């Protein structure tokens, strides 16, 4: 199973939707709350070159945010990404 990391914040509806999509697929993920630790926001920005949450990583590859995750899912690529380890 792939290693999935979701950088998120508490009051972010896109974060909630991204986590729900992953949960529907039965994916376990590590959540990093950038609103609780400013150094984690800096870490996220360095890794993704993005400032907004969510930022999703699968096996250390930057996937992007919620809309990117949905697009990958609709293109049927998400399942194969998640199957890699």
Automatic annotation (TrEMBL):
Protein name according to UniProt: Glutaredoxin
Function: Has a glutathione-disulfide oxidoreductase activity in the presence of NADPH and glutathione reductase. Reduces low molecular weight disulfides and proteins.
Cross-referenced NCBIfam families: GRX_bact (TIGR02181)
Family membership: Belongs to the glutaredoxin family.
CDD domains: GRX_GRXb_1_3_like (cd03418)
Domain GST N-terminal residues, every copy: 2-85
Keywords: Cytoplasm, Disulfide bond, Electron transport, Redox-active center, Transport
Gene encoding the protein: grxC
Database matches in Pfam families: Glutaredoxin
Entry-linked InterPro entries: GLR_AS (IPR011767), Glutaredoxin (IPR002109), Glutaredoxin_subgr (IPR014025), Glutathione_S-Trfase_N (IPR004045), GRX_bact (IPR011900), Thioredoxin-like_sf (IPR036249)
Organism: Methylophaga marina
């Amino acid at each position: 199973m792939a290693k999935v990391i979701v950088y998120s914040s508490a009051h972010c509806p896109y974060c909630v939707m991204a986590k729900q999509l992953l949960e529907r697929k039965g994916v376990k993920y590590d959540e990093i709350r950038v609103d609780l630790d400013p150094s984690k926001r800096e870490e996220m920005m360095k890794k993704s070159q993005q400032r907004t949450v969510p930022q999703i990583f699968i096996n250390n590859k930057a996937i992007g945010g919620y809309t990117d995750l949905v697009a990958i899912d609709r293109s049927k690529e998400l399942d194969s990404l998640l199957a890699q380890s």
